[in-house]
Structure formats: C-alpha cells, structure tokens
C-alpha cells in the first residue's frame, strides 16, 4: 500500500487524551476524509470513550478496534497505549459481522450466514477472537464455510488479560468473535520462527480435540515426553510450569506447525493451543536465539521484494516470554531491516490463524511471529 493511502499513530497518554492525540496525528495527514480506522488499545482504555471520541474527532466511515495486552508500533513493544491506522485506499470495501460471546458455540452457522453470498477468493478475512471461542471449533467452522484457501488472518486469545476482552465494530462493543471481510486489499504473509527440534520425533497417539487435550504420546501419558527430556530437572520443570518454553512441533505437509502446551492435568494429559491430529509426528521444540536474527534477515530479504508500505505484525505472547529482553531487539531488527518506508503496527496474541496460499491451508500458530504486508 502506498504511503499516501494510509497513516499510523500512537499515544500512551491517559484516557480520552490518548484517543485525541492519535486522532490529531491522523487528521494532519488526512484532513478531509477518513474511510477506515483500525485501532488497537490496551486494557487501560474504555471502549465507549474510544467510540465517542473517534466519532467526534475523525468521523470515520468504518471503525474496527481490538483490545490487546501488548501493542506494536514501529520498532517498539507497547505495554500501555493506543495504536491507530487510517486506510484511505480507493476501492476498498468491507463487510463485517460479529458473534456474541453467549453464542460462542455457533461459529459454523455464523460463517455460513454472514458470508454466504460472497465470492470468498476476492476477500481478505480479518478476525478478532476472544477467549470464549474455541480456536479449533473456529478453525473447523471457517474451513467448512469459507474453504482452506481463503486469505485470512485471525488474532486470538485463550484467557482474559483484563477484566474483559473487547472488540469494536463501528459503535458496537463485542466480546465474542469479530470478522471483517476486506475487498480491494492484497495481503502477503511471512512467518518467522527460529524454533528447532530437540531430539528424536515421536507420535501423538490419542487426542481429544473438543477439549484441546493430548492424552497419549507414543501410547503413554502425554506428559511423560517432558519427563524424558527434563530428566532430573523434571520436578522443577513441573513446578515452574515451563511447558510454554518448549512447544510441540507438529509435522504437517512438509513444514512444522507449533502447538503451545498450556498445562498438565492430573492424568498426564496436556492442554494445548493449536491444531493436533492423532497419528501426527512431532518434536519438542526450542527457540534457538543464536540463529534467530540471521533467519529473520534472510526471510525479510524475500519479503522486501514484494514492496514497502503498511506491515501488520502479530507477535506471540509465548515468544515474548521466551525471548525476554531479546523480544524488543527482534522488533527493532525487523524495523531496521525493512527500512523507514515500511510502517509497522501490530499486537501480541496467544495464537494466530493464517492462510498458507502455496499449500492451500489455514494453520493455528502459537509461537511464531507473523508479518503481513498490505497492498
């Protein structure tokens, strides 16, 4: 997307003053017309106040908002603030729908009714998914209704990081599932990993997808695989619940998909985030920071060939926890490599869903960093 088609802004001021500040910054660039505002905010701000102030200061054609625990603006991770993006691209059309939290088990019916008359390949689907929505149910419903090859980006959370998990469409506040279909926007996607396999592969032999449980690995209680690798440090491993530092890598269609382990139940079953099928081959994975930045540089070189402009980043809360101080260095390195002509905004999430256009599939990822270039 050309720089004259969009503007980004950030503020960490308190309450209404933060909304006014981002509005003023955008108004300076687009003084006459405001079509689409995409806004991300931390739990420090009130949705009703955001709607009121944005509608008064900018009067956008459409307003889409997501509450998130951490934000991204250019080369910084933001623990508190508001990040806004105005898109004034010509011939951009949107169709948006939301599913209320109390109807969280109706995702398939939601997709079928909301987008039944649309030519799916013409659209980019952007989803905000609250903790009330099971990611596996969401993914299955989306595949059945829209197909595997649809271009999509889903930003999801497994637990509340504030008292509520708010989403906004125009003047409506939601805490369930928000889906925005955009036509006239081309989106290219790049995943950055840095994870490498640890030890020999194993087989996942029993899964209960409806409960997000891995019950058996190699026909043994699933947790035993961590006992094997942790060895004499197993008690410390369990006491500190270090599962999220060592996700599972599921082999799927020639690539490795990360699945985050959330906790262990008394029977040895593992609660996971992602997509797991019985019979899958998997590894214990760890993030190799020694080779991380060289991988980023190599992959971003290919990404740069597609142009510069608006980059929307979805980073992983698990990844941030593992990298600690290096998490900020990673974002700074990405910004530096992409250059000043690329403008970066984004959020941190528990998981994201993205479409691999080459392989024609949609995956749930929990530990990778996702970059999307909007044109």
Number of strands: 25
Radius of gyration: 20 Å
Mean pLDDT: 89
Q: How are the strands of the largest sheet arranged? A: 1-6-2-3-10-11
Put simply, the count of helices is: 9
Main pleated sheet: 6 strands, mixed
Structural class by SSE content: alpha+beta
Portion of residues in helices? Answer: 25-40%
User: Please, what is the oligomeric state?
Assistant: single chain
Label the overall shape.
Answer: globular
N- and C-termini, Cα separation: 4 Å
How much β-strand is present in the residues?
Answer: 35-45%
Unreliable runs = none
Task: Please give a quick description of this structure.
The protein contains 9 helices and 25 strands. With 375 residues, it is α+β, with helices and mostly antiparallel strands.
Notable features of this structure?
375 residues; alpha+beta
Layout of helices and strands:
Elements: E1 6-11, H1 15-29, E2 36-41, H2 47-57, E3 62-67, E4 71-73, E5 76-78, E6 82-87, E7 93-99, H3 107-114, E8 123-129, H4 135-146, E9 151-156, E10 167-169, E11 172-174, E12 177-183, E13 187-192, E14 195-208, E15 213-217, E16 220-221, H5 224-230, H6 234-239, E17 248-252, E18 255-264, E19 270-273, E20 281-287, H7 289-304, E21 310-316, H8 317-323, H9 325-338, E22 343-349, E23 351-356, E24 361-365, E25 369-374
Parallel strand pairs: 2-3, 8-9, 21-22
Antiparallel strand pairs: 1-6, 2-6, 3-10, 4-5, 4-22, 7-12, 8-12, 9-23, 10-11, 13-25, 14-15, 14-20, 15-16, 15-19, 17-18, 17-20, 18-19, 21-25, 23-24
């Amino acid at each position: 997307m050309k720089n004259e088609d969009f503007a980004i802004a950030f503020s960490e001021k308190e309450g209404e003053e933060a909304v006014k500040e981002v509005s003023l910054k955008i108004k300076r660039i687009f003084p006459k017309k405001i079509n689409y505002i995409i806004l991300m905010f931390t739990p420090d701000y009130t949705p009703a106040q955001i709607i009121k102030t944005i509608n008064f200061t900018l009067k956008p054609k459409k307003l889409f908002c997501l509450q998130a625990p951490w934000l991204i603006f250019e080369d910084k991770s933001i623990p508190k603030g508001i990040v806004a993006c105005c898109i004034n691209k010509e011939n951009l059309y949107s169709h948006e729908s939301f599913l209320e939290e109390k109807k969280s088990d109706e995702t398939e019916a939601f997709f079928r009714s909301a987008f039944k008359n649309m030519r799916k390949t013409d659209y980019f689907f952007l989803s905000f998914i609250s903790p009330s929505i099971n990611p596996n149910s969401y993914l299955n419903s989306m595949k059945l209704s829209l197909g595997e090859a649809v271009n999509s980006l889903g930003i999801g959370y497994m637990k509340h990081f504030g008292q509520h998990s708010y989403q906004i469409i125009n003047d409506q506040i939601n805490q369930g599932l928000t889906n925005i279909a955009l036509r006239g926007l081309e989106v290219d996607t790049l995943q950055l990993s840095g994870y490498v396999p640890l030890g020999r592969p194993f087989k996942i032999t029993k899964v209960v997808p409806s409960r997000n449980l891995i019950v058996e690995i190699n026909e043994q209680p699933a947790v035993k695989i961590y006992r094997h690798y942790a060895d004499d440090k197993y008690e410390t491993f369990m006491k500190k619940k270090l599962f999220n530092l060592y996700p599972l890598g599921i082999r799927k269609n020639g690539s490795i998909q990360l699945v985050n382990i959330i906790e262990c139940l008394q029977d040895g079953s593992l609660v996971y985030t992602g997509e797991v099928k019985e019979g899958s081959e998997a590894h214990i994975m760890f993030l190799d920071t020694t080779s991380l930045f060289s991988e980023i540089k190599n992959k971003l070189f290919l990404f740069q060939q597609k142009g510069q402009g608006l980059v929307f980043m979805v980073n992983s809360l698990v990844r941030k926890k593992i990298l600690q101080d290096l998490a900020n260095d990673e974002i700074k390195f990405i910004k530096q490599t992409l250059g000043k002509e690329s403008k970066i905004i984004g959020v941190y999430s528990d998981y994201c869903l993205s479409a691999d256009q080459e392989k024609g599939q949609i995956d749930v990822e929990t530990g990778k960093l996702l970059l999307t270039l909007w044109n």
